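notes to self, project folder thing:

trying the whole complex as one job this time. last attempt i did each chain seperately and stitching them together was a nightmare. two parts in total, labels are on each line so i dont mix them up again. if this works i'll redo the older ones the same way
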Amino acid sequence: MSAPRTEIIAEARDLGYAYRPGQFAVRHLDFQLRRGEVFGLLGRNGAGKTTTVRLLTTLLPPTEGGGRLFGKELVACGRAERARLGVVLQSESLDFVSVERNLRLYAFLWGVDRETAKSRSEEMLELFELGPMRERKPWALSGGERRRFQVARELMHDMELLFLDEPTVGLDALTRSRILDYLATRARSGLSIVFTTHILHEADRLCDRIGVMSEGRLRAVGPPSEIKRAYRGARTVEAEFERALSGPEGQELEALLARDGDGFSWIERRDDLLLFQAANAEALVASLARWAGSRGVEMTRIAVREATLEEAFVHLVSEGPAPELGLARRRS
Amino acid sequence: MTLPPVLRLVVRNFRASIDPITLLVMFGQPAFLIVILGTMFNQLIPSVGASGSYVAFLVPGMIASQMITGAVLAGRIFWLDRRWSMVEQIFSGPFRRYEYLAALLLTTLLFALVGVGIMALVALPLAGLPTLSGVELAVILATIALGATFFGALLIAIGSRIRSANLYFTIQSLLQYFLIFISTVYYPVSATTPTVLKAVVYANPLTYAANTVRDAFTHSFGPGDLTAGVVLGGLALVTFLLAVAMFRRLEFGPVQ
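result (full assembly):
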């Protein structure tokens, strides 16, 4: 986004954690976080995202491997390093006082002076639209309001690296968008963010780089655009016909495309709409056009677009990394 | 000026974790017992040993039992912090685990001292309070501090291993009533007390604390109080170390 991000502020080196002997929740994690970047951790439920966050925030000691936080070994990190972190946990945490008092009390815990806490709480109440419920107890809020409250409370203190474990769960699209905009602004001003989410277009929009996790392993790390491109270097071709193709027509088309060697794969095949993943989209389009012309079937629409992050994600977690991503399954 | 981390956590414990109704019940109940039990049994029991009236016997016992009240309140804070993920949240911030533990134990002690003050105020019009020497007052406070550490650390150690609120609060209630009723808080141990019951009463640290406070009130310290202090101190140290060990192994994640 702004200045070059070269300073490494956190890293995982062959990092692993087992909740029970031999039962690793995450293993062989290797990645680095750079100052000022937004790093997204994507993965299915149970992929190991939360454990990774707990390891990097020193809540859990590594079972194997290691890593560094602000230049210090994770196992040696203490108050000084954690004072530079912000952590929004996946599970809700709260004190038994009103929303506003929660914000101020949390600031007090972090040693924020009273005046700053007062002005910042007003700012957060407004930003996260919590003003009307400032006197209410957090547990009486709706799920989305509680999530907003969690993020707002964490932003009451200064930090260099913010971990957000699924911060937008339960939020409506507008609120999510506002929070993401705010986080992007903070990132531009130098805050580093680690962000876990299931909402892939959020990661696509906000993250400079993403790591895709599956079954406790990191399957790929890179900018969203690279991950999408590296998804077999493919783009998505959508071809719509004037009418539904008959069974024999479909089989003939499939055989033709396979013979032409355009390196495609089917994504979806409905009666009149075909979706392909193609390494050489132009050649595929040409083949389709030739076949449609020879058969007298009119193509009403043809579109070539980049693969979405969701398509790349589904591929990575179900089939493993593409060779181009570098992070091959060397230890899987 | 920023307070040290332990004190910030203690302030937070007082400001955020216990609601006024809970405090009223926790401190009101023993105060109520002094008033009701003291008044009613005073009519039945003409005198109890060196204490004189039953109410004068009861008051030091209730004062000693405040160490349990303090421990129960701190245990409750710890459990709620686990339940609402505040332990994990605090540990991810600029605090060390031992600071959180120290803050809980300090909170236990402060709650116990608040309880002692309330009991003394309630007892004043009923039985009056003896004039205590500096040494007697210091011994009472030291006894309360050691007892609060023992019971507080015990409940925290138990709370750090249990993942069910029902189980934790059941154990806590059982322990609380068992310790208070099978001790010398409400009644003295005499030659006619059954041997088995006597053994259980003397295995209860609260008995030693109650006896020491009572001896201070009657200006009758003896070698037994020194032994009691040493035993209580040893037990406090053991349970503190146990709580530290449990804290090191504390698992995060959902509790019910």
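what i see at first glance: Chain A has two domains: 8-229, 234-306.
need to look closer tmrw
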